[in-house]
Recover the amino acids of this structure.
């Protein structure tokens, strides 16, 4: 198996300073390079870059497990223990969840811990976890 490399993701935000503070204080991201129009974040070892825009239009969702999942979202797959620690941290910080932390597909192939919330610009983030990395791409037989 090859070593997983960090990914890069750029996303729009409407307030660079509010975004900087939120990603640093709420998610614990380290700050990389930045300007008055963009900022690099270290999101669990991945490079995500907030780009300042005038407005953001995010729409669309699909029904998964009886919940409306935002079609456009990003996040990180954490280790099982780390996901639980992180979700408790977010609860203590009074994050308003779009979908509260829970176990999806319980007892089925692809069972996962997941949660959804938004950043200050309305971008949806999902953080999830699997008991084993082999389950990430597992299919029902």
């Amino acid at each position: 198996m090859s070593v997983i490399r960090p990914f890069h993701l750029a996303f729009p935000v409407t307030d660079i300073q509010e975004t900087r503070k939120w990603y640093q204080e709420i998610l614990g991201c380290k700050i990389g390079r930045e300007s008055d129009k963009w900022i690099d974040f270290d999101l669990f070892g991945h490079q995500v870059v907030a780009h300042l825009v005038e407005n953001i239009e995010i729409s669309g969702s699909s029904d998964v497990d009886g919940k409306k999942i935002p079609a456009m979202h990003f996040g990180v797959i954490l280790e099982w223990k780390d996901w639980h620690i992180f979700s408790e941290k977010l609860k203590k910080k009074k994050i308003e969840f779009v979908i509260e932390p829970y176990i999806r597909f319980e007892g089925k192939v692809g069972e996962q811990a997941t949660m959804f919330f938004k950043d200050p610009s309305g971008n949806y983030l999902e953080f999830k976890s699997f008991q084993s990395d082999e389950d990430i791409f597992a299919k029902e037989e």
In short: The mean pLDDT is 93. The CA atoms of residues 10 and 49 lie 5 Å apart.
